[in-house]
Amino acid sequence: MVINDLTYSDWRAWVFIGFIILLIVYLVKTGQLSIIVGDAKALLAGGV
Question: CA angle at residue 40 from 39 to 46, to 5 degrees?
Fold first, then answer.
């Protein structure tokens, strides 16, 4: 039972990690990431 629980937890973690990676790759390919980073820098600099 414990092994199954660990495997299930790992599976969910890998799905989550995979989703995040795919999201980042998608943002990079569509050019959205640079826009988001630019906005974040502007917010941090206070130049909204």
Answer: 90
Q: What is the CA radius of gyration of the chain?
A: 17
**CB distance 14 to 23 below 8 Å:** no
Task: Describe the crossing of helices 2-30 and 32-45 by its angle, rounded to 10 degrees.
Answer: 90
Q: Is the pTM of this model over 0.85?
A: no
Query: CA–CA distance from 22 to each of 12, 27, 44 (Å)?
Result: 15, 9, 26
Q: For 18-36, write each residue's pLDDT tens digit.
A: 999 999 999 888 888 888 8
